[in-house]
Amino acid sequence: MSIFSSRGFTMVELMVVIVLVSIMAAFSLWGYQALHQSASIKEDVNKIGTMLKSARNWAFTRKQEVTVDINGNTTLRARYDSDGDGTADTNIMPAISLSEGYAINTGSLVINQRGLYSTTGTVYRTASSTTASGKQDCVVVSLARAILGKYQSGNCNP
Question: Is 3 part of any domain?
Fold first, then answer.
């Protein structure tokens, strides 16, 4: 019996296993990143929808006009005119930070004292990358409703 015939793995076999494990890890990391992005988009859209509903309720119950806008693409805020100068300057609730960049196609959304949207529009993602697995990535606002939808070809489709 030779001293080289001991049982074990050769260096080539070990390298093949390491390469295969590395390839599998790369694919799983890519899948995790797509899943994470999709989840953060869904969370952002849900935050936007909740903020719009809360602002509408606040405007109706207090009979105050509320302006909802996005400051710097990542901060959603709902404000009202507290001093009567015609400028919405006081937050009705804490501003919400969004993980992705968003915009409102009309600049801002105004909710009147009756709880109806005086301006209608779409809140959409400004990021250039798209995620096919995300079901909802925009909010369309009509006169009395805010509906979550999928942004395709320049339109938010509920």
Answer: no
Local structure of 82: helix, strand or coil: coil
Count of domains observed in the chain = 1
**Do residues 70 and 104 touch, judged by C-beta distance below 8 A?**
yes
**CATH code of the domain covering residue 115:** 3.55.40.10
Alpha-carbon span 96 to 94, nearest angstrom: 6
Two structure tokens written together for 116:
């109806």
From first to last of its 158 residues, what are the pLDDT tens digits of the chain? 556 666 778 899 899 999 999 999 888 888 888 888 888 888 998 999 999 999 999 999 999 999 999 988 889 999 999 888 988 889 999 999 998 889 898 889 999 999 999 988 899 888 755 544 456 788 999 988 999 888 887 788 88
Q: Is residue 42 part of a domain?
A: yes
Residue pair 59/81 in contact (Cβ under 8 Å)? The answer is no
State the residue range of the domain holding 140: 11-157
Q: Is 1 contained in some domain?
A: no
Give the up-direction half-sphere exposure of residue 101: CA atoms within 13 A in the CB hemisphere: 7
- Does residue 78 lie in a domain region? yes
Phi, psi of 25, deg, nearest 5: -65, -40
